[in-house]
Design goal:
The chain is of the alpha/beta class. 28% of the residues lie in helices and 25% in strands. It contains five helices and eight strands, in the order E-H-E-H-H-E-E-H-E-H-E-E-E. Strands 4-3-2-5-1-6-8-7 form an eight-stranded mixed beta sheet, with helices on both faces. The longest helix is centred in the first third of the chain and has 13 residues.
Length: 187
Amino acid sequence: MRPLRYGINVTLDGCVHHEAGVAPDEDSMRFWTAEMDRADALLYGRVTYEMMESAWRRPASGTWPNWMGEWDIPFAESIDGKKKHVVSSTLDDVDWNAELVRGDLGDAVRRLKEEPGGPLSVGGVTLPLALADLGLIDEYAFVVHPVIAGRGPTLLAGLRERVELELVERQDFRSGAIALLYQPAAE
């Protein structure tokens, strides 16, 4: 069965708003590029899909925008080419190597996990909460930023039941951020 990994940036106080942490640097972009490269396909809700597409889809000109640093481009190239599954009840159509996921969320994601292929990656805020509630996330990758945001959406806010995790891997960045990889603890 294909593992499903949830990855997100988070502040020390649990804020997961994409602008709340430290600005991306070479270390963090290298980490997220490796995460993107290991994934066979991506799973997003509508909001995250649209946000990622607006930032990381290759422009029609074929030239990456000037705001991208040299360490952004490998991530952009990786995400741009990935297969994407988009959970949405409001979108009628998607492109950018994407297909819509319809029907019961748990059943649909279990089917994706049973398909042949490599690991799946999920990002965002709302969809991962629903997947964690369903017990469908196999790994959690958090990049914890040395920032206290004081406001904003928080990591897995509203989770119905506590999820015990075991630390599998840790990586320190020069910025003071720390990448932590967890798996659900054996019962």
